[in-house]
């Protein structure tokens, strides 16, 4: 009797899995190398530098999400792929401190010259308590800044990834950095010096082939 078993032989399945793993490793290798040079082996870098942001270890993959931006565009987790992303999280009225953070992020990105297109900016904003026209006003003042107004508990699983201590990420005023694979990997305090952020990015972009 001829066997009708169509399952792949164990050796074939093993080769397929090994091939898939190799592809994944090749894709992730540039970010991993940049991470190692930046945090683990800084002496490998050609000049003596110290990171100014705080490392998130281990890195935290962002969950699947579906959101609508101030401009009416839909974005999901794939929007994060392929570029480094500054994420700023706010709640209520965007006061002077909030505006200054957005300005700082914009200026830091502008310093990256030929690498500027490897960086994007995302603001997650719980807008309850903000003026009705403020989201549109901010969008006009910061062209290119992706603003996502959040209502009530919308996107709570996403926001929880950014909780690094007992404080809600809506209250810290921090700026976060997400790598081109969609992982939260570093954050900056509200009073972080722009010059330090610039140096960090220069190193990461230099040693990463992704984004």
Q: Can you describe this structure in just a few lines?
A:
Helices cover 37% and strands 21% of the residues.
Structure notes:
The chain is of the alpha/beta class. The protein has one domain (27-207): Glutaredoxin (3-Layer(aba) Sandwich), CATH 3.40.30.10. Helix content is 37%, strand content 21%. The chain contains six helices and eight strands. It has helices spanning 10-40, 96-110, 134-141, 156-161, 169-172, 194-207, and strands at residues 54-61, 66-68, 74-76, 84-91, 119-126, 146-150, 175-178, 183-188. A six-stranded mixed sheet has the order 1-8-7-4-5-6. Helix 1 runs antiparallel to helix 6 and helix 2 crosses helix 6 (194-207). The longest helix is centred in the N-terminal third of the chain and has 31 residues, at 10-40. It starts with 9 loop residues before the first helix and ends with a helix.
List the helices and strands and how they pair.
Elements lengths: L9 H31 L13 E8 L4 E3 L5 E3 L7 E8 L4 H15 L8 E8 L7 H8 L4 E5 L5 H6 L7 H4 L2 E4 L4 E6 L5 H14 L4
Parallel strand pairs: 4-5, 5-6
Antiparallel strand pairs: 1-8, 2-3, 4-7, 7-8
């Amino acid at each position: 009797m001829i066997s009708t078993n169509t399952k792949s032989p164990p050796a074939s399945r093993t080769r397929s899995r090994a091939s898939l793993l190799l592809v994944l490793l090749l894709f992730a290798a540039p970010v991993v190398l940049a991470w190692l040079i930046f945090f683990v082996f800084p002496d490998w870098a050609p000049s003596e530098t110290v990171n100014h942001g705080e490392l998130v270890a281990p890195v935290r993959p962002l969950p699947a999400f579906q959101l609508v931006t101030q401009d009416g565009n839909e974005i999901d987790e794939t929007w994060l792929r392929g570029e480094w992303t500054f994420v700023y999280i706010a709640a209520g009225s965007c006061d002077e401190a909030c505006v200054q953070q957005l300005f700082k992020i914009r200026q830091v990105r502008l310093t990256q010259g030929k690498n500027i297109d490897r960086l994007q900016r995302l603001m997650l904003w719980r807008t309850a308590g903000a003026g009705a026209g403020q989201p549109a006003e901010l969008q006009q003042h910061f062209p290119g800044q992706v603003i996502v107004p959040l209502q009530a508990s919308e996107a709570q699983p996403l926001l929880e990834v950014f909780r690094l201590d007992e404080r809600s990420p809506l209250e810290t005023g921090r700026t976060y950095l997400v790598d081109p694979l969609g992982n939260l990997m570093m954050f900056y305090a509200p009073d972080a010096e722009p010059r330090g952020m610039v140096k960090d990015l220069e190193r990461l972009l230099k040693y990463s082939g992704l984004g």
